[in-house]
Amino acid sequence: MNGSGFVSTSVVRWNGTDRPTTLVSSSRLEAAIAASDVATPAMVSVAVFNPLPGGGSSSAPFQVSSPPPAASQGTVQLLVQDEPVENVLQFEVSITEATLINAVGTGVPLLGAPADIDLKSLELRRTVLELANAPADTYTTLRLTFANPKLSLPTATGQIQQVANNTSPLAVQIASGRTTVDLPISVVVANGAPVGLLVDVSLRRLLPLDASGNIVITNGVIFADPESLGAVVLTPFPLTANQPLGEIKDIAGTVDSVDLSTMSFKFHPLRIPVAVTVFADTLTVFQDFPNNHFSDLVAGQIVEIGAQLRADGTFLATEVELLVGNGWSSMRHPIRTAVLP
């Protein structure tokens, strides 16, 4: 409070009741106001009382207003799925940007850090790319940026050839100027509701193939083109409670809290900027715990989980491993893999 004539014995009164008061200067007081004092909108009287001799009091009305409503937001579940190519054993790529953009051009980053995805041949696979919160809004574009492609190719002698950005005599690179693709979409993120976005990567269109399905090599380089027609397609998908979306493996993170009554725990993955809820059941396997039981979980532990992602944003754990003696600095960023049920 600002005024004049304040002394060390001055007391602030809130609706006639003394509050702990600190003298900052003869013109300034600070008082401790309880949360309950401002919990309900009301007009209150705030007074300063100076005791005798020479005492007195002065007061002024103070309006307690309702706090502004919390910003509404929903959960975006972003997955990547591939279409396999017979002559590619494995395709890895980093997604360095995933940004939802609304109609006026405002972007919402979905990735807490670059994400490495691992898509293997002969299996239609989904990779859990990210779980993120986004403000409630209507979005018209998802912008993705790709980097660091890698291929595993079979050779005529039955060996496996690893091909990366600067390998010789064969390399794989993102085509110049084609690293970022804007995918059109119309999706509404509603307050408290999960939204599913499936990014379908067609290796048949991403990689240069001839009419026989053989990879085209130009001056020793395979040029991947995310902007090629049909190479990357975005589709929203409907979500229902506990709908299984696939199985994630080897996701490391910290246990934030444990609820024994529901056999669930809050889990903060290494590269996901929001905590998620993980449930366990009688089929969940616990490894490297003292008793290998759910009751061994405590807040602060660093664990690695395999789990089934469900549409409501929760996970059902298939396995939970305690990473004894490991910290963030000793962990490498895991490549995320997930297999459709």
Can you walk through the features of this model?
With 341 residues, the protein is mainly beta. The protein folds into three domains: 54 residues, no CATH class; 165 residues; 96 residues, Copper binding periplasmic protein CusF (OB fold (Dihydrolipoamide Acetyltransferase, E2P)), CATH 2.40.50.320. Helix content is 1%, strand content 53%. The chain contains one helix and 25 strands. The strands form six sheets. Strands 8, 9, 10, 12, 13 and 15 form a six-stranded antiparallel β-sheet that branches. Strands 19-20-21-24-23 form a five-stranded mixed barrel. A four-stranded antiparallel β-sheet has the order 2-1-5-6, with no helix packed on it. A hairpin with a 4-residue loop joins strand 19 and strand 20. The longest helix has 4 residues. The protein is elongated. The N and C termini lie far apart (63 Å). The C terminus is likely disordered.
